[in-house]
Amino acid sequence: MEWHQLPLGPLQTNCYIVSKENRTCLIFDPGEESEKLIKWMNEKQLKPIAIILTHAHFDHIGAVDDIRDTYQIPVYVHENEADWLSDPALNGSHLFKVGKLIQGKPADHVLTDETNLTIGDFAFNILKTPGHSPGSLSFYFAEGNLVISGDALFNGSIGRTDLPGGNHHQLLSSIHEQLLILPEETIALPGHGPVTTIGREMDTNPFLNGF
User: Fold this and answer.
1) What does the pLDDT profile of the chain (211 residues) look like in tens digits?
2) Where are the beta strands (DSSP E) in the chain?
3) Where are the transmembrane segments (predicted)?
4) How far is residue 146's CA from residue 25's CA, in Å, rounded to a whole number?
5) Is residue 64 within 8 Å of residue 77, measured between CB atoms?
6) Which are the contacts of 42, defined by CB distance < 8 A and separation ≥ 6?
7) How far apart are CA 30 and CA 19, in angstroms?
């Protein structure tokens, strides 16, 4: 299994593509620049089979409908943010006015109490990591030794909690109870900025000390 990081859009939101040897792939958080993303995947001869969202803030969902329509693939989001895809007031595109207002189509699959998911040849764990937003999820691939942490955990930082539905204490609890229990060598793929590891954040992240 391989993974690729593509920063997209004005906020350079990290889109991740996780792929298998058979060229099938999952797309996480296609935030913007759908043409750039489609061109990249076509050059790599990848075959997307699903779009999965860590959460539904505008900078993580801007290219969802373009990618879904191009490849005719389903979209997955947590139930707490299912309405956000079509509501600019909830997804933040109305508040921040960075690019277009996002009024997308509903997700094809709404995640509720699932703790694991299999899509095609991909099997992974769903980790509920609310705090940055009420429906934030992280996705752990034991096979690839990686976790896609969205805007919960960053390299040397954590997600902001001053947006609607944010909760600082809840975010810290999510990180400690869901992410820091993973093997220390686990590669953490954040929603913005460079990758890190769980062990590095345990040792050096100043926001996690003293919790």
Assistant:
1) 999 999 999 999 999 999 999 999 999 999 999 999 999 999 999 999 999 999 999 999 999 999 999 999 999 999 999 999 999 999 999 887 666 789 999 999 999 999 999 999 999 999 999 999 999 999 999 999 999 999 999 999 999 999 989 999 999 999 999 999 999 999 999 999 999 999 999 999 999 986 6
2) 2-8, 13-19, 24-28, 47-52, 75-78, 109-111, 116-119, 122-128, 137-141, 146-150, 153-154, 157-158, 187-190, 196-197
3) none
4) 15
5) no
6) none
7) 15
Quick one: tokens of 211?
């919790």
End-to-end, the C-alpha distance of the chain in Å comes to 34
Largest CA distance in the chain: 47
Scanning the structure block, which residue is given the tokens 């909690």? 161
Q: Delineate the domains of the chain, giving CATH numbers in brackets.
A: 2-204 (3.60.15.10)
